[in-house]
Write a structure and sequence with these properties.
single chain, alpha+beta, Thrombin, subunit H, 6-stranded antiparallel beta barrel, 6-stranded antiparallel barrel, 37% helix
């Protein structure tokens, strides 16, 4: 309120000064003008200071708003990240509740290639009960691969589509039994498929046995003339290169 009153006084002085300038140039008027200027000079300085302070406060408020906006964005990012982590955890917990075998969660440390094979390195090994030959899946129940080497605290996982990897499987929905062999490039060859089997592209391949893991999706179907078997290829459904966590399956 005090600042507003000071500003009003300054404005009144300016108006009065303008009127004097407009109506007279006499010595008396000049004296009055000079007196007014001398009297109100401190108030004018105060007004300038007030205006300067207002500008500074405005800048500060803008900076505060920017900082608050950045803080809110960071909070939203953290909330979204937590939401995704919770969804992943729910999937994993749901998975654990619906399968009989015991699962061991492991964090992926590295995705790499070694001697032409695609592999993952995880942060659990023999000290956690991990053994060579154990199957590995993701939170979506898709086959990732198999443990081929286990150290005390880390293990290496061979991706299921690597050459020399093989699994017994069923083709869904036909329930046709097959043997799937990795041929590299995230691709399987399906063996011993009868020439009269009514397969279609898009059919799924699921591991046989107690653990119903989805392994692949049929992408091509061919047949050599005179052959008793079809030539069938399927692509690996999991994407090992994107995984941050896997689940290693051991016997109950």
């Amino acid at each position: 309120m005090m600042r507003r009153g000071q500003i009003i006084k300054v404005v009144a002085a300016v108006i009065l000064l303008g009127l004097l300038i407009f109506f007279s140039n006499a010595g008396f008027a000049k004296s009055i003008r000079m007196g007014i200027v001398l009297i109100f000079r401190p108030l004018m300085k105060i007004s300038q200071a007030v205006r300067g302070t207002s500008l500074k406060l405005s800048d500060k408020e803008v900076l505060d708003l920017v900082k608050e906006n950045q803080r809110l964005k960071a909070s939203l990012f953290d909330a979204e990240k937590l939401k995704l982590e919770n969804e992943s955890l729910k999937k994993a917990l749901g998975f654990k509740e619906t399968v009989a075998p015991r699962l061991r969660g492991a964090r992926v440390l590295l995705h790499a290639r070694e001697l032409g094979k695609e592999l993952l390195v995880v942060d659990h090994g023999e000290n956690s009960g991990i053994k060579k030959g154990m199957l590995v899946t993701d939170s979506n129940r898709m086959l990732v691969g198999r443990v081929f080497e286990a150290g005390p605290n880390i293990a290496k996982i061979s991706v299921a589509s690597n050459p020399e990897e093989a699994f017994e499987a069923d083709i869904i929905p036909l329930r046709v039994r097959t043997l799937i062999k990795g041929i590299g490039g995230k691709t399987f060859s399906l063996e011993l498929i009868s020439a009269d089997a009514a397969l279609r592209q898009g059919d799924f391949v699921m591991l046989s046995g107690k653990m119903p893991l989805l392994a692949g999706e049929i992408t091509s179907i061919g047949q050599t003339s005179g052959s008793a078997f079809k030539e069938v290829r399927a692509s690996l459904l999991s994407r090992p290169e994107t995984l941050q966590e896997v689940f290693i399956i051991s016997s109950p």
